[in-house]
Amino acid sequence: MTARKFFDQFADEFGKGWVAMTTYRVTAEHTRSGWWALEASEVGAVSQTRRLDRAEAEMREAIAFLADVPESEVEIEVIPVIPDEVREAMRNSEELRSEAQKANRDAAAEARRAARTLHAAKYTYRDIGTVLGVSHQRAEQLVKS
């Protein structure tokens, strides 16, 4: 069996109902008038929308028409063009969020250690709670976790 014949047979048996999806990149740039200018340079499609979350729907029909494919075969990746200052602030925010999560995990571990140390010294859960500034129920959870 030739490779072509095998491929044709495979496509006949297994390819039914499969849709070839093509992903098109759409850049979205915010204008001074408050609109988003949209462009899919691969096919020359341009449009605009008031809201960024509507960019994909706004471009789907135009891309499908210009690419001569059904709309159901068009997948869109919207790429907002944002200032470098904003991109840097977003990156810093993510780093700080990650550091805060680590700090929270470390703080929780230290609270458990403190509760266990007090419990080992025969403090009651109510006294542990009072010392740590938590309820007696939370003190028990810290000791047992």
Automatic annotation (TrEMBL):
Key words of the record: Coiled coil
Coiled-coil region(s): 86-113
Taxonomy, superkingdom: Bacteria
Protein name: Uncharacterized protein
Originating organism: Janibacter limosus
